[in-house]
Amino acid sequence: GTAQAHPLLNGLNEPQKQAVCLPAEHGLILAGAGSGKTRVLTTRIAWLMQTGQVSPQGILAVTFTNKAAREMLTRLSAMVPINVRSLWVGTFHGLCHRLLRTHWRAARLPETFQILDTGDQQAAIKRLIKAMGVDEERFPPRDMMHYINALKEQGIRSGQAEAHDAHTRRKVEIYAEYEAQCQREGAVDFAELLLRAYELLQQDEALRTHYQQRFRHILVDEFQDTNPLQYAWLQLLCGPQTVIFAVGDDDQSIYAFRGADVANMRAFERNYAKGNVIRLEQNYRSHGNILTAANALITNNADRLGKNLWTDAGEGELIRVFQGVSDLDEARYIVDEIRELTREGLPRHQMALLYRSNAQSRVLEHALFQAGIAYRVYGGLRFFERMEVKHALAYLRLIANQDDDTAFLRVVNFPTRGIGARSLEALQLEARQLNSSLYNAAASLTGKAGTAVGQFIRMIEGLRTETTGLSLPEVIDHLLDRSGLRQHYQAEKDGQDRLENLEELVNAAATFADDPEAAHNIDRDTGEATSLLADFLAHAALEAGEHQAGDQDEAVQLMTVHSAKGLEFSAVFIVGLEQGLFPHENAMMARDGLEEERRLMYVAITRARQRLYLCHAQTRMLHGQTRYCLPSSFLDELPEALLQRINTVPAWSAGSYSTGWSEAPAVDMTTRVSARAAGAAESAGGFHVGQNVVHTKFGAGVILAAEGRGEEARVQVRFGQAGTKWLALAYAKLEAV
Ligand code: ATP
Ligand code: MG
């Protein structure tokens, strides 16, 4: 039937309106990329509230990233005048964390429980394996971490894990010890957040009923990527009065490797949505050629739920396919095109560079940096994951929770306090025997080690009393001095960057403390409040990679295809389209691996609005080796008529790669090749940008920029350890590698 009229529905097409106004029954929106699923979901929340069908407290909405949650809250507050704080909108991890913070007691957690990020988790497992006297070679901590997380994601505790051989039995034992260690330390890893929240609802009937009655509408974006535990968690929250509204696209399911299961979508359709399935077929994001390419690619997958996308936006430009000689060549081409797009007036944040693996970003970053183009890497080394920041956070964590052994070990001897590995082993042994935290075991440690550790404990106690009543940024500022961290980096020759990051941490805390939406872990209904400190630490662990203030607007966006899900950009460069890289060689081993890679490619293509670049190179440096690459088989799956070939590979060389099309005449080859030649002449003293070098004192690095000639020649080098430096070639002991 025709949907209702309401100002919120203006501009939506008929099926979109129907979806927004679906009666209070379970429903599934099954639709392709860019068809307005997320827009429909957001509008539905606003519409439900504005038409008085639900209060903000009655909404639970799951988004794929924290960024998406923030965007949704921003859009909602523009559409309806509400206090967004009372809304439960977030990722599965964020929402589960909120639940556990609110009901820490019922979840059998200490009030100050801390979140372990992946790095912390691996360190904790490594420490445990050592304490158990287990052979690290046979049970690598990293593998153990994956093993444990995979079980948790299936809802399996160590007590339920199956083991039919000695090796697996040992793994289960390690899992059990790890559970005990986390419980003792009040530490919760990412997988545990979900499992704990699930068990909490499952075991506590009163609590479950409370939330079932509270949440009248559960809305889930990117439903195709839920894993079985997340789906089970949703089912627990769904009471007799609750309505679930799920939106998804089976063609964009890209997390099977992490246990996500498209079958959830079929199960949901069968058991909940029943007849209520709405398909959206008009794409509002991309120009015709881009959409046709995406459609053509994905038809190569079998077993799809089947959708067809169309647009009335017109064909638009051809898709540019660039073949370069090397990855450096590819990066230079991209820089040139970014400059051109900038001249045409496109803002930088509307340009995205998408790659299959994080390792690919390095070359691109160098090229952008050298060209003076602002860029922002999502999911690179996150601010909160930097060493000095983690050190400072460890002190903060110890103030909040002294039983946090991971934090304890990180800073007990940093800055150095003469506490050696021996003493720490003795302490760990003592703690195991007493079944207590390292902090509490310290008292029974004797001798010189006992004195040194005792001093550390007194310092933490001192910190705790001295900082009572201070604001969060003041606490951090104080601990930087009291712990000796600030002095340590002041004394260090190249500590300037790290000092700046520590000051930035104080700033981040100030921003966080001032943000009225920051304290979103305080549940005003139950009145249980957590401290700002705990909130800030959780923020550091959960939201680290996605948000950095300031540099958003004028920066080119760099990210993996996985993290681009749900986003859109005017111009998209997909880089490294080569066999083994994209599709990735690891995927070839997995069942349906190629199909998942193809869905990933589909996600990548459909991020583009107007202009799409598909780039690949003949040679690429990866993991320290030069690889010779063949073009991605996905390129062959795109209709040739949609493509414009751009080629900088000399004809004699292109001929040796008989891929059929690489000899195709280059559109603007001559100009490009001559531009390259000019670039080469700029190299200083035999060195060139992008080159790997070794310095006698600073070690290995890579040249970012070069200037001047002869005696005057200088190069800027980024060293692995020593940071970035300008060096005069006449004096510097620099060698090419
Ligand atoms: P994805 O599968 O990539 O997550 P999606 O289905 O969630 O995509 P949206 O991001 O909601 O799609 O919408 C894609 C773009 O189309 C957005 O810019 C959105 O504002 C726009 N859009 C959606 N519906 C309409 C409409 N009816 N009229 C105009 N623009 C629309
Ligand atoms: Mg979306």
TrEMBL record:
GO terms for biological process: recombinational repair. It holds the Pfam family UvrD-helicase. It catalyses: Couples ATP hydrolysis with the unwinding of duplex DNA by translocating in the 3'-5' direction; ATP + H2O = ADP + phosphate + H(+). The keyword Translocase does not apply. Keywords: ATP-binding, DNA-binding, Helicase, Hydrolase, Isomerase, Nucleotide-binding. InterPro entries: DExx_box_DNA_helicase_dom_sf, DNA_helicase_UvrD-like_C, DNA_helicase_UvrD/REP, P-loop_NTPase, UvrD-like_ATP-bd. This is DNA 3'-5' helicase. The gene is uvrD. PANTHER family: ATP-DEPENDENT DNA HELICASE SRS2 (PTHR11070:SF2), UVRD / RECB / PCRA DNA HELICASE FAMILY MEMBER (PTHR11070). It is an enzyme of class 5 (isomerase). GO terms for cellular component: cytosol; DNA helicase complex. GO terms for molecular function: 3'-5' DNA helicase activity; ATP binding; DNA binding; hydrolase activity. Its EC number is 5.6.2.4.
